[in-house]
Prior knowledge:
- By secondary structure, this protein is an all-beta fold.
- The chain has one domain (5-79).
- It is built from no helices and six strands.
- The strands form two sheets. A four-stranded antiparallel sheet has the order 3-2-5-6, with no helix packed on it. The protein has a two-stranded antiparallel ribbon with strand order 1-4.
- The two termini are 21 Å apart.
- The relative contact order is 0.30.
Amino acid sequence: MPAATLYVYGEPADPAVARVRVHGPGFSHTTEVDAGTRGYAVAVPELTSANHTERAGQVVATVDFLDIRGIELGSRMLRDR
């Protein structure tokens, strides 16, 4: 069975957030926040289920919340469980 890709998704609480960037060692992915739903989803193929046990409890990525100009409004760290 092929390894599953990790997806990062959500709805930013701050209405000024226009883009979301998910980044970590060797990757960076950015997506727009959907104007209709105010949600976002980012596939992170670099983080697969195949290497899940190696990352248990570690920070695997940072999510940055950006305004329309690309200025960071906040961020959070993602840990693997």
